[in-house]
Amino acid sequence: MEKKVAKRLQGLLSKIDSNRTYDISTGVSTIKTLASAKFDETVELALKLGVDPRHADQMIRGAVVLPHGTGKKVRVAVFAKGLKADEARNAGADVVGDDDLAEDIKNGNLNFDMVIATPDMMALVGKVGRILGPKGLMPNPKTGTVTMDIAKAVTNAKSGQVNFRVDKKGNIHAPIGKVSFTEDKIKENMLELVRMVNRLKPASAKGKYIRGGILSLTMSPSIKLDSQELMDVK
């Protein structure tokens, strides 16, 4: 098995130049040639940012609705009551509740990919924050997942919203589609994400903002992107 993996990896590495920095268009066309799994691999973008996440004003966090979605079926849970709960169900939420939903989460039932809540539910959501937080599921106003406009939030989540946040080392990782997507769709999704990241550049960030970009598939080696071109995406 290890020999098969090594042979597959060597074959993929032969298709790329590890010393080269690819422009966005060439990077996208190249990454599509690296598909090798028996499933539809996810295209992933990683950005190295010139920020210090230890400072609150440099903790980059946001959300963007990719124009062509992620290619993944997103299961949405909503904390809401009354009319807002009905609004969530009508918009296509998979799970809707309040105390019962919190209890399910405490019991380990996390059959969803995103959590949305109305502001009045956040005290309840906070009680399961220790479970949701480490899994990146905690609702946050900055990502549009704490809102009174439940219908819009659910629709965005279902149609390809990607939430992102910088890690301790200043990196952002996000899916931007599937390898089966056309080059144009992958590129447009990438540009939409990069545009949002650029928009969130903090005034206090010093030096180069986007210091590196990496494009990869679930099962592929990565290729380096031109960081200056990424910074110029407005």
TrEMBL record:
Keywords for the protein's UniProt record, in alphabetical order: Repressor, Ribonucleoprotein, Ribosomal protein, RNA-binding, rRNA-binding, Translation regulation, tRNA-binding
Any one biological process term the GO annotation gives: regulation of translation
GO molecular function, one term: tRNA binding
Matching InterPro entries: Ribosom_uL1_bac-type, Ribosomal_uL1, Ribosomal_uL1-like, Ribosomal_uL1/biogenesis, Ribosomal_uL1_3-a/b-sand, Ribosomal_uL1_CS
GO cellular component: cytosolic large ribosomal subunit
Task performed by this protein: Protein L1 is also a translational repressor protein, it controls the translation of the L11 operon by binding to its mRNA. Binds directly to 23S rRNA. The L1 stalk is quite mobile in the ribosome, and is involved in E site tRNA release.
Listed NCBIfam families: rplA_bact (TIGR01169)
Subunit structure: Part of the 50S ribosomal subunit.
Similarity field: Belongs to the universal ribosomal protein uL1 family.
Name of this chain's protein: Large ribosomal subunit protein uL1
Organism the protein comes from: Helicobacter cappadocius
Underlying gene: rplA
